[in-house]
Amino acid sequence: MANRLKTSAALATAMATLVAATSASANGRFPRAERLLEDPSNPNTLYLAATYGLQVTHDRGCNWYHVCETAFSYQMQYTGDPILTLASDGALVVGTQSNVTLSADQACDWTQVLTSPASPKVSFFDFTVATTGSRSLLLVATTFQPTGPVNQLQESTDNGRTWKAIGSPLPAAVVNTIDIDPTNAMHIFATGLTVGDETPNSGVFMSSMDHGATWKSHPILNTFAWASPYIAAVHPTDPNKVFVRTDGWKDRSNIQTADDALLYTSDGGTTWTEILHAGGPDDASPGAKLFGFALSPDGSTVLAGYGDPVDGSRLVEPAWFGVYKSSSDGKYSFGADPANPTPMLGVEPISCITWTANGIYVCMSPQGESSFLAFATQPTFASRKDMTERHEGRAAVVHGASRFVLRLADGLSAAQRVRRRRSEDLPPSPHDDLDDHDDHDRRRFDGRCRSGRHARRGDRLQAERVRLSHTGHRAQGRRSRACVDGGRRALRAPPPRAL
How far is Cα 104 from Cα 89, in angstroms, rounded to an integer? Predict the structure, then answer.
C-alpha cells in the first residue's frame, strides 16, 4: 500500500485527543466518536464520524480538523449520527438520514447528491461499498408512504455522484443496515424488523443473490424493536459467516438498561448463535452498549468494545467497559459464558474499533479524562500503556465556533505557522487560497507535528496527545464563516507532510 506508515511491532501510537469528556458537550449530546475510516491509499489520512460532526487528520493524528454538521449535512440544526464511507476514488460520502452529501477533496467542499422531497418523506439510513466488480455504492432509501414505509435500494456506479433505484422493495417494515458480499457484488445482505413492535424474534436477516431483484428472509434469534439487529461484518472470504449486533434495552418499565449482544451465523442466516452478551438477558443484570466491533482482515478474529452513551435516563454497567477478543478457531467464542466474558482490555469505555491491514484503532472515552484514539499493530494489548505513547500538548477552542483550534507545544499561533511555512519556501497548502484577513477566523495550520519532545525518525513515531476542550458547536450568533458559507465549506485541512 502506498504511503504505508511504518510502525515498530511494539509501538501503538497515541492519536490526538478528540474531546475533553469532563466538560464537553456536542449540541446537547455527549461527545462521542462513532466510526473511524482509514484511507486505503494513504493510512496517514483518517476520517472520524462523531456526535459533534466529522474530524479529519492527514498526519495520523498530529493535527485534527473539525468539519461542522452544517457543512456536510446542509441542515442548520442537524444533531443526528452521520454515516460515512469512502468511494473507490477516495470521495467521502456521508449520509445524514434526510440527505446524502459527497466531498471529492478530503472534506473541504461538499455536494448534495440525494435529498428527501417534501412529500412523501424519504430517509437514507445506511449505505455500503462493493469491494469487487465495479465497486458500486448501495444505499437503502425508506419512503414513508401513507400505506406504510417502502424500503428500496439505490445504486451509484460513479462513486456517489448519481443514484438510481434497483431491484424490488425489501420485505421489512424497517431496514437498519445493508452490506455486500466481499466475494460477489450481486449478493446483498440486509437486516431490519418485520414489524415495529415487541413481537418476539421480529428481527429479520434478508439476502439477495440477484442484486436485489428477489429476497429471502430469516428471523434472527432474540431480536425485536427493543433489540434491533444491525450487520456488524461479513466474513471477507466466506459470505455464509455474518455477524450481527443488537441495539438492546431491557427493564424498560423501571429504567431502560443496556442490553447489547453480538450474534453469529455460519450458514447464511438460517441459524444464529449468541456469542457475546455482557450481563445476559436478566433485567437485574445491566449490560453496556456494544459501540465497538471489528473483524480482522483475514476474518479469523473479532474484537468487540463495550462503552457508555452517557445518558442519565438510562442504565449502563461500567464493569463491562473494555475490549473483548474472540477465539481464532472459527467459533469466535468469547468464553464459556457469553453473558460473563473477560475483557482483554478492561475499564476503558469504548466508542469505536477499526481493524485494517495496518493495525487496530480504538476510540476510548475514559470517565473524567479526555477521550482519545489509540492504535496498536497487533491484538495483544492489555492496557492503555500497551497502545499509547502520550505527550502532553496544548490546545484552545474558539468558543461557540465550528472548529477546533490546535496550538502545539512549539507555541506558534496558526498565523505564525503559515508565515513560517511560506518563509521556508515549503510547498503550498490549500489554506493559501483563503484571504489573509480571514486568518484569525479560520485558524490555518501547516499540518506539521513539531515540538521539542516528539518527531519521527525512521520507524519511530511519537505523536502528541493534544487535549481539547469543547463548549458546544451551536452558540447563537457565533458560528464561523467557514461553517455557514452556504453550508458548503468546512475548515480546510493541509496536505500530508513528513515530520
Answer: 9
Alpha carbon of residue 380 to chain centroid: 23
CA distance 85 to 160: 10
Peptide bond into 494 cis (omega under 30): no
Q: ∠ CA 447-448-453 to the nearest 5 degrees?
A: 145
First to last CA, the chain: 20
Residue 409 contacts residue 453 (beta carbons within 8 Å) = yes
Task: State pLDDT tens for residues 338-388.
Answer: 999 999 999 899 999 999 999 999 999 888 787 888 999 999 999 888 886
Distance from C-alpha of 456 to C-alpha of 460, rounded to nearest angstrom: 5
Domain ranges in the chain? Answer: 1-67+368-499, 73-346
Return the CATH class of domain 73-346: mainly beta
pLDDT per position as a tens digit, 427-473? 443 333 333 333 322 222 222 223 222 222 222 222 222 222 222 32
Cα–Cα nearest to 345, from 12, 120, 70, 100: 12
Cell matching residue 452: 521539542
Strands (E), 251-349: 256-258, 262-265, 273-276, 289-295, 302-307, 314-315, 322-325, 345-346
- For residue 434, give the 3-state DSSP assignment: coil
d(CA 182, CA 229): 20
